[in-house]
Amino acid sequence: xxxxxxxxxxxxxxxxRLDIFLTKRYSEYSRCYFQELxxxxxxxxxxxxxxxxxxxALGDQINISFKKxxxxxxxxxxxxxxxxxxxxxxxxxxxxxxxxxxxxxxxWSNTFVNALLGHCALPKTSEFRPGIVHRLDKxxxxxxxxxxSEITHQKLTELFAERKIRKEYIxxxxxxxxxxxxxxxMRRCPIHRKKMVIAxxxxxxxxxxxxxxxxxxxxxxxxxxxxxxxxxQLRVHLKHLGNPILGDKLYGKNSINDRFxxxxxxxxxxxxxxxxxxxxEMLELEAPLxxxxxxxxxxxF
Length: 301
What we know:
Blueprint: E1 4-9, H1 18-25, H2 31-39, E2 43-45, E3 48-49, E4 61-66, E5 83-86, E6 90-95, H3 112-119, E7 141-147, H4 150-161, E8 166-174, E9 180-183, E10 186-188, E11 196-198, E12 207-215, E13 219-226, H5 233-241, H6 254-260, E14 267-275, E15 282-286, H7 291-298
Parallel strand pairs: 7-14
Antiparallel strand pairs: 1-4, 2-3, 2-4, 5-6, 6-7, 8-13, 8-14, 9-12, 10-11, 12-13, 14-15
Helix pairs in contact: 1-2
């Protein structure tokens, strides 16, 4: 995308804030992109820098200086990987917390994909996510698998879709968590688009088995087995119980997060089990609980 300028006059009655208004007019660009332009004063309303929440009115003049954004860097990088399993068809890695899975705005390099490309060849299954069949949030540590061929990628994707790949997690949660099965549908929050919410009528099926492994008087160590794989499912389900994951900035309790100096949400993908799509071998792969989660749990005693 080349840098370009555009100017126009608002010719219809409008009730949308500026960033939403521009996203609707220029559908090829994201709302985040326009928020960035507005913040950097590349959008003028009647000749003056403005705010994203400003609502353009009929007759207002808008000037936009479109700026070229950096593209994803899929350059192989020499980043150490904690490899749990690898063969000619797939690789399973214990991802550290704070590592982004694939290049995206704000994290164009030093990602899991860059590290994988520095280790082995990956199929061109996606422009930005070669070989990737599932993901973990940036702050979540633990088991990730990636395909090393197109046929393996296709078959692993099918296994995920058919719920034939089982994942198990360990979380450190606030308070004493009950052992139970949660069956509460979820959907994206219509107001805060980064958040997911419980929505029993309009949501998609979301099921999690919860087992209390230990309680130290303040924090619980919890074993989580999701049947479904909704975005933020485990974090939302534990919040619904009143026991959010420690360190969770989106769904948690900031006062308690601050009290423990939590550097991330303490969620770890401990185990992944599936039948190898090429060899037919049953794989049960585990990643040890990271030290920060062990230590934060001991802090409560």
